[in-house]
Amino acid sequence: MDTPAVPDAVVVIDDDYPMRLACSQILSRSGYRVDAFEDGARGLDAVAASKPGLVLVDLKMPGLSGTEVIARLHEIDPTITVVVITGYATISTAVEAMKAGAYDFLPKPFSPEELRLIVQRGFERRQLQIEARHAEVERELQRRRFVTFVTHQLKTPLVAVHQFLDLMQRLEDTPDAVAKRADWLARCLVRTEELQRLIEEWLTLARLEGGTLGRQRIRVDVRPLVATVLESYRTLAASREVSLSHELPDDVCPVHGDPICLTVLLDNLVTNAIQYNRPGGRVGVCAHCTPGEILITVEDTGAGIPHDALPFLFDEFFRVRRPGNHSRGTGLGLHICRRIVTEMGGTIEVESTEGAGSTFRVRLPFYAEPVAGPGDAGPGDHVG
Ligand SMILES: Nc1ncnc2c1ncn2[C@@H]1O[C@H](COP(=O)(O)OP(=O)(O)OP(=O)(O)O)[C@@H](O)[C@H]1O
Ligand SMILES: [Mg+2]
After folding, report:
1. pLDDT top residue among 140 and 374
2. Whose C-alpha lies nearest to ligand 1, atom 31?
3. Ligand 2 centre and the CA of 340: distance in Å?
4. In the predicted model, is pLDDT for residue 224 greater than 90?
5. Of residues 269, 260, 313, the one with CA closest to residue 287
6. Over the stretch 79-97, which tens digit does the pLDDT of each residue have?
7. Please, are residues 30 and 100 in contact by the beta-carbon 8 Å criterion?
8. 12-43 pLDDT, tens per residue?
9. Tens-digit pLDDT profile for residues 106-143
10. CA angle 224, 225, 231 (to 5 degrees)
11. Ligand in nearest proximity to the CA of 330
12. pLDDT higher for 88 or 184?
């Protein structure tokens, strides 16, 4: 395994002894651990062995040139910060150093303060680079985990459908064959619906990530949108014996956002409120204007969510395991909701009591009519 770089260690490579001495003294006094070398070859060996965070290197040296040293330093450690010291501070030498991968250059003569500042900035930049690299690695790992999980989720229902089809193909003509076939076909339908939902949700996420969904910012009237969404779930709610209601004041302000996203958001919250409810339960949707934003609430009298599950509720693929409940969801719905709300500049939160019900609160920026500017002056207003 690679040895991690030493955060406060500096290596100075310069053939000029007074320069090496001055740099070492100034930087040691500032708390850095400094090693100095008179030529590139020795400096490179030391860097490979001690992994400093920053190297100060003279651009013009006998033997290995400064630019060669910079290239080799980055072969040893691509994150190393290199500052070039040069007595020939011309644009061309600076360009040469930057092209070779140096972070900055310091023309001789320089003051102790200039040296300290450039080294400090170099370390700060290095830290930012390391953090960005970690974030990038984490994103890549997360992407891979996501792909693995989705592949698994796609495979499971497909395997089940395949097995039922196989069974049906080999089914003998016994008295219970018709009933068996009907049962297996029904199971196949459930599993294919599951597949469709997963693919749809996956596509929604990909479109949100790719920017083809959620970028629109227009006036969206909440009243008709909520009414349409609730209407489309009347049959599902009735089949579960759940009643739907809404409270939408006439003066509820419009949202500034994307109408498709808002529909996807409400679809998910309302389906959950119905699906995780009980016979005789209720689902209510309200919208109110608050200063600067609009508050949409989806409330239900369903199963509620265990307290310890709440911090993970909006994570991708998170599902609450409940004994006796075999509902098949993907666990992407609320993750999509959070992505949408964040994309639109709002927030989503949940309050829930197990056995009593849940309330999801979504806050979104409201749409303000553009104010007429001076360019929109009426016919009577003219200058001259
Ligand atoms: N209103 C609710 N009442 C009780 N539990 C809920 C409610 N909404 C969500 N949950 C719980 O949170 C989990 C995650 O919900 P989410 O909508 O993300 O996924 P899902 O419903 O399982 O699948 P899908 O992605 O198909 O919607 C659900 O499995 C459910 O257990
Ligand atoms: Mg859901």
Report:
1. 140
2. 320
3. 15
4. yes
5. 269
6. 899 999 887 656 677 777 7
7. no
8. 999 999 999 999 999 999 999 999 999 889 99
9. 888 899 999 999 999 999 988 888 898 898 998 888 88
10. 85
11. 1
12. 184
122 C-beta neighbours (distance < 10 Å), count = 22
E-only strand ranges, 153-240: 218-220
Query: 265: Cβ below 6 Å to ligand 1?
Result: no
Q: Find out whether 70 and 97 touch, Cβ atoms under 8 Å.
A: yes
How many angstroms does the Cα of residue 272 sit away from the middle of ligand 1? 6
**pTM attached to this predicted model:** 0.67
Q: How many residues does the chain have?
A: 384
Alpha helices in 100-176 (DSSP H): 112-169
- Give the distance (Å) from ligand 1 centre to CA of residue 358: 11
- Coil, helix or strand for 55? strand
Residue to mutate (ligand 1; options 199, 264, 272; most atoms within 8 A of CB): 272
Instruction: Decide whether any atom of ligand 1 lies within 6 Å of the 313 Cβ.
Output: yes
Sheet of 243-247, strands arranged across: 243-247, 282-290, 293-300, 357-365, 347-353
Mean pLDDT across the stretch 241-256? Answer: 93
User: Who has greater pLDDT, 75 or 371?
Assistant: 75
**Which CB contacts under 8 angstroms, 24+ apart, belong to 211-215?**
213/258, 213/260, 213/261, 214/258, 214/261, 214/339, 214/340, 214/343, 214/344, 215/258, 215/343
Mean pLDDT of the chain: 89
